[in-house]
Amino acid sequence: MNYHSIADILHNNHVWAAQQHQADPNYFESLSRGQTPPYLYIGCSDSRLPLTRFTQTEPGEIFVHRNIANQVSLTDINFLSVLDYAIAHLHVQCIIVCGHYYCGGIQAAFEGTTTGLVDSWVNPIRELYLQKQEEIDQLPSREAKLNYLAELNVELQVKNLYQTSAMRNALRSGSAPEVRGWVLDLHSGRIKDLNISTEAWYLHPSCPTSQSLLESRALNQGSNTNVSSVPGNLQGIRK
Ligand SMILES: [Zn+2]
After folding, report:
1. Is 48 labeled as catalytic in the residue annotation?
2. Is residue 143 part of a domain?
3. 138-160 burial string, b = 16+ CB within 10 Å, else e?
4. pLDDT per residue as tens digits for the range 13-42
5. Active site includes 33?
6. How far is 23 from 123, CA to CA, in rounded Å?
7. How far apart are the first and last CA of the chain?
8. What CATH number is attached to the domain comprising 179?
9. CA distance 9 to 32
10. Residue 156: which domain range?
11. Which of 65, 98, 103, 126 is catalytic?
């Protein structure tokens, strides 16, 4: 790959800005007025994942948090502040946790040979691998094992989202965003929706809204439960 120099990058930026301004003189004025992005994206720091290019989205559409192996850490003040701001202030409608195949963080967790801070950071994924080792090791190739671990990791991080106070507060107030788990296949450039059901995690007994849902279901016992019978804050979350 031919890498751009710093001078090239700055030059490209100035050319792009001029083109944008020519196409729409109000473009940057509009951007500077603020943001109301409908999406929060939690993805990997990997340099091969410019989400706006992969999804053809525009500046202002996606609020972003990235770290190695797209983790939802319950002790990372950086991530937790991003999440809190996205939910409580930006009122995002959907949170996307996006992993990817060919992820160095997943490989490090799988091999268990990394040292230093990265080793500590990916340790929850290492533990996930050890929990699921029997299932994963049955897969026929190293690539299949890593891909599956990447998908399991997304599922774990979606689950972790429901353990955060920001998400629990949103659930209680009936304003919880939808949550999606994706994995991006760098080999094809395509995003795969893992169709992760979040209902089980939503129904945590410590959440008062969960209790009201359970009571609602008890009342509706015998009739078919559909989206319209679910409290408003669950609509869009159910799969
Ligand atoms: Zn990665």
Report:
1. yes
2. yes
3. eeeeeeebbbbbbbbbbbbbbbb
4. 999 999 999 999 999 999 999 999 999 999
5. no
6. 48
7. 41
8. 3.40.1050.10
9. 22
10. 36-197
11. 103
Nearest in space to 154 (alpha carbons), one of 69, 92, 238, 229 = 69
Q: What is the pTM of this model?
A: 0.84
What CA–CA distance (Å, rounded) separates 105 from 33? 37
CA of 91 to the centre of ligand 1 (A): 27
Interior CA angle at 110 toward 77 and 165, to 5°?
25
* pLDDT of 96 above 90: yes
Residue 93 is assigned to a structural domain of this protein:
yes
| Whole-number Cα distances in Å, 220 to 93, 134, 223, 226 | 28, 40, 6, 11
Residue 156 included in any domain: yes
CA distance 52 to 209: 35
Count Cβ atoms below 10 Å from residue 173 Cβ, excluding itself. Answer: 12
Distance CA 9, CA 49 (A): 18
Q: Say if 157 falls within a structural domain.
A: yes
Closest residue by Cα to residue 150 from 193, 102, 90, 186: 102
What are the residues whose beta carbon lies below 5 Å from ligand 1 (ion)? Answer: 44, 46, 103, 105
Element (H, E) at 88: none
Q: How far is CA 40 from CA 9, 87, 235, in A?
A: 27, 9, 18
Count the domains in the chain: 1
Q: Is the pLDDT of residue 159 over 60?
A: yes
| Catalytic pick among 4, 21, 33, 48 | 48
